[in-house]
Amino acid sequence: MPAKKNTAKPRRAVIVGGVRTPFIRAFGPFTQLDTIALGTACVKGLLNQFPVEWKELDSLVWGGTILPGGIAVNIGREIIFDAGLPDTLESYTVTRACTTSMLSTTLAAASIERGDADVIIAGGSDSTSNVEVRMPPTLVHKAAPVVMSAKSTPVDYLKLLTKIHPKNDIVPSRPSIRERTTGELMGESAEKMAGMHGISREDQDAFAVQSHTRAAKALAAGRFSKEIVPVETPGGETVYADNILRGDTSVDKMARLKPAFKEDGTLTAGNSSALTDGASAVLMMSEEKAKALGFTPLAAVTSWSYDAVDPNDQLLIGPAISMPKAAAKAGMTADDIDIFDIHEAFAAQVLCVIKMLGNDEFCQQRLGLDKAFKKLDPQDINLLGGSLAFGHPFAATGTRMISTMANELHESGKQSALLGICAGGALSGAMVLEAV
Amino acid sequence: MGDMLLELGKKDAARKVVKNLGIPLSLPQELSRPAGPWEEMPLLDVDAAVGHLPGSELAPQVARALGGMGVLVHAAADSKKFSHYQKQGAARGRLAKALDMDAKPEGLNFRVLIFDATGVSDPAELEMMYEFFHTKIRSLSPCGRLIVLGRPADQLEDVSQAAASRALLGFVKSAGKEIGKKGATSQAIYVEKGAEDRLEPVLRFFLSDRSAYVSGQMVRVSARVKALESFTNIRPLDGKIALVTGAARGIGEQIARTMAGEGARVIVMDRPGEENLTAKLAREINGSALNCDITASDAAKAIKDHIAENYGKKGLDVIVHNAGVTRDKMLANMDADRWNMVMSINLLALIASTRELLEIMPDNGRIVCLSSIAGIAGNVGQTNYAASKAGVIGFVEALAPTVADRGITVNAVAPGFIETQMTAAIPFATREAGRRLASLSQGGLPQDVAQVVTFLASPQASGITGGVLRICGQNFIGA
Question: CA geometry: angle at A231 spanning A228 and A232, to 5°?
């Protein structure tokens, strides 16, 4: 375990606000919006909600997991152009699977802490409806010399056509979210973990229902009214709300769904997060700057931990490592944490993670703790629902959780929140937020 | 020349033909060998059956070792010891499964069979061990591992207990001969009282592919050496400085490569005249080349100067005495030169240089000497060689206790028939006999020796000192 970080740092990074676009199931109303458009809508919404003077902005730190390579990779910079923000505002784009926008937030926090910047927009977006369809590399290798050369003549193009094999060179490869090393789909890995830890279909369904019910209740209470900004689509439609949430779902309805990843499996479309389009962002400042500019800090970023495990073992168990480590870096024990919020890629994965957080041997061997970090019931976590209910636009989930938790700390009077996210590549991330 | 039978045995079709025609020819099983450096979980999701006597004490250590390697454990559910496997299994997402101790397992293949006999008080109790292996041994996978755990007989006061303890070794050696044809190995690990916490990494090694060519051995785990160093499961030699003598080619070269693969900075030492080879190898493994005659009076000084020059002030963490020569001749025809040359390179230089190099060896250092089966069993025409290699065993046995309080271990390894340039020059019939006289029915490879030497050079091996470990595929000679 890492020792407590030196907290005698002069500057604290605080979150003064956060918003997201509605989270929309893939190939729905957002299909025509690519990740840059979603990000642009989100950043504009953030600046409407929290009108900081543009000259104060130091940087835009963006994140994406499905980067539109053919168009632009540094999508943060494109968002600046499309949102009409100053050309002189610098930006970079990071990628770290599902922890991507947690990473953009902590990178922003780090530069604020070390005095590099005072005001940063951090966020992330993904459009699963706009996954690039890749042409076979054989076609690229044959065509590139002709297409890229200025000296190519029409005859060269004709010759090229004769060389192209209709089946091998034209049929594009199917995009997938398989792990490169193991060849497993994310859901197959989660299914494997459910089997390993004996997580039942019933427990997964019950957790999924809890997520939907809590999210619906919070939504009805107006809890997200400040967090979700409407988005206008190219078709002229304005989308105001998420479309994955099912407040009226029940364990009976969940029980009727067929297994999604394995014939006799326990994971279904109901207890797995859906492919989603969306963007989210937070406005971050140094505490002094926030005060000087008249913003109310919602929460401070206290600590974070990024970790990795063996993808051949338990791909999504990482939060059980990262969460205790982030707490330790904040100088906290589990008892010092008021709110636990864990990204719900799959109900099964969350239940595996809390099982390991409560396992003495795991915490001794993998973390060097004396005993289990904390025995948590599924009811103890994700008080306002999670990714099962909202959806999971990969790079937007981090700042979605951070915004919600920052607001929750501010409104509830609670002191601390511990966030955990599992990610592809057997990665994980966790952070501690504290009320200001 | 390659091993034709082994090559043939790799082909399923050939195996079938041999079997169907009833040809009295047993084709050796190709051994499963590690493809790269040490891994965190080398036995991910393989099945292991574990049995024990009621009074046995090592369930916590076995459970930890197996759990850490990613193994799925099958054990008797009605025993208190099952909770150890459950606890470790739950932490790894691999809950232990109930196993009937005296029935044949249905539809299961075990990569690992372990029986903890540390609690044995009377040979009559070994019937439980018989039942366990009798019903499970057919389910042992190719290249599987059979391990019996016991307490060293010389530490037991009760004669029945001591007899039972010694019985384990006879059992293990015979079992090894029965399972050898499927590439599986068998070992007896004797754990001294108080050395229980040294067992886990030893088990990890002997359960892994890294012990592919070690079988029928007795391994003694003790706490005689101070264990002053914590370690991680991968890259065990990270940052260590290791000297390998005779490293230009063959087994020495492979040892240097394997150690470098585990993070060691290797001094590739060989005699003057091998500059091309040592320089090339040193470049490839990011080590340093030292060409110096180990028998020269200033050899140790040259090594010390080399370390100071190339690695700053750091000491020498690992010494592997691999350099050796043969000058075979029947005793009656052996001239004094042959005798003296072999003795001086293989033994005298080893003793002299170790004495001096120990001065710069930090705590937790490791010394590994290459002995030979010839040193144990003797060989026609090798009075000089066998004397020198037996002398090496005497040397490690005597040196080990004197450096134990510094955390330094001293061990010897005794390779059997290893496929090298040297053995390729042996006449066909002798060579063939050399291979088939082993339970594994094949020769070993230089990397098999290198893996064992690397393990003995690691912090993980703090429980093993003053002994000689054979790497011979359980060769019948001298066993």
Answer: 160
pLDDT in tens, B382-395: 999 999 999 999 99
B24 in any annotated domain: no
- Whether residue B253 sits in one domain with residue B198: no
Residue B1 maps to a domain: no
pLDDT at position B14, please? 76
Write down the domain spans for chain A: 13-131+272-435
- B257 in any annotated domain: yes
CA separation for the pair B92, B150 (Å, rounded): 27
> Residue B92 sits in which domain range?
31-221
Please tell me the pTM assigned to this model. Answer: 0.88
CATH superfamily of A13-131+272-435: Thiolase/Chalcone synthase (3.40.47.10)
Is the domain of B206 the same as that of B246? no
**Does residue B249 sit at the A interface (CB-CB below 8 Å)?**
no
Q: What CATH number does residue B255 fall under?
A: 3.40.50.720
Q: Which residue in the set B40, B91, B95 is minimally distant from A361, CB to CB? A: B91
| Cβ contact A321:A159 at 8 Å | no
The rounded Cα B281 to chain-centroid distance in angstroms is 24
Q: Could you tell me if residue B26 is inside a domain? A: no
Any residues with CB less than 8 A from the CB of B267 and at least 6 apart, and which?
A: B241, B242, B243, B244, B287, B288, B289, B290, B303, B306, B307, B310
Question: Counting one residue from A and one from B, how many pairs have CB atoms under 8 Å apart?
Answer: 37
Q: Do B206 and B300 fall into the same domain? A: no
Indicate whether B17 pLDDT > 80. no
* Whether B390 contacts B398, CB under 8 Å: no
Please give, rounded to a whole number of angstroms, the shortest distance from the CA of A365 to a CA of chain B. 9
Q: Count helices and strands (H / E) in chain B.
A: 17, 14
The partner residue sitting opposite B93, judged by closest CB among A196, A360, A365, is A196
Beta strands in B246-287 (DSSP E): 265-270
Asked if residue B62 lies in contact with residue B74, where contact means CB atoms within 8 angstroms, the answer is no
Amino acid at A288: E
On whether ipTM exceeds 0.90, the answer is no
Q: What DSSP letter does each residue of B327-341 carry, written as one string? A: ----GGG--HHHHHH
Interface test with A, best of B61, B92, B233 (most A CBs within 10 A): B92
List all residues 6 or more positions away from A399 whose beta carbon is below 8 Å from its beta carbon: A18, A20, A101, A102, A104, A105, A122, A123, A124, A280, A281, A282
Please give the tally of structural domains in chain B: 2
